[in-house]
Amino acid sequence: MKKRKTAGELSLQASRDTTKYDALEVGHALTDDIKDQLEICIRKHNTIFDENRYCVGFVIAGDPLIKNLMRRKFFAYLYLPSPRPNQSVFLYNKLSDKIEKRLWVLPNAATMACLSELQVVDPKFKTMKAWSDAFFDGKFWEFIRKQHDIDMLSEIEYLRANREELIKAGCKEIDSNFSEPFDFSKISIDKIVDTKTAAVE
Question: Among 58, 64, 104, 197, which one has the highest count of C-beta atoms within 10 angstroms of its own C-beta?
Answer without folding.
Answer: 104
